[in-house]
Design brief:
The chain is an all-beta fold. The chain is built from no helices and eleven strands. The strands form two sheets. Strands 2, 4, 5, 6, 9, 10 and 11 form a seven-stranded mixed beta sheet that branches. It has a four-stranded antiparallel beta sheet with strand order 1-3-8-7, with no helix packed on it. The chain is globular.
Length: about 120
């Protein structure tokens, strides 16, 4: 079994920054793609960013350079740096990791951006 645990969410004012972390643990052979998704109230879960083990990244178009994803393969940890936050960024942010072809999800961490 594989577990993903997010941390770093919280309340921040518009224009502020946060860093989210997600550590994978358990029966890890190799963690392939890791990513961050978010879900705002009443909306579907959407991709924010993803990163391969080699460091190739993919971002949602609306990120527009405000967020940066990175990972530390030695720690099986992925990070998401959130900058220039807007109230519309308020959502539960979920970590995702692929291990042996299966997708695993964390429980989510709430990011609230006040205006």
């Amino acid at each position: 079994q594989v577990q993903l645990a997010e941390s770093g969410g919280g309340l921040v004012q518009a224009g502020g920054s946060l860093r989210l972390s997600c550590a994978a643990s358990g029966r890890l052979l190799h963690v392939d793609v890791m990513g961050w998704y978010r879900q705002a109230p009443g909306n579907q879960r959407e991709l924010v960013a993803a990163i391969s083990p080699a460091g190739s990244t993919k971002y949602a178009d609306w990120v527009k350079g405000r967020f940066t994803i990175s990972r530390d393969n030695t720690k099986n940890t992925v990070y998401l740096h959130l900058n220039s936050l807007k109230p519309d960024d308020t959502a539960v942010y979920y970590c995702q990791g692929t291990v042996a072809g299966y997708d695993y999800w964390g429980q989510g961490t709430l990011v609230t951006v006040s205006s």
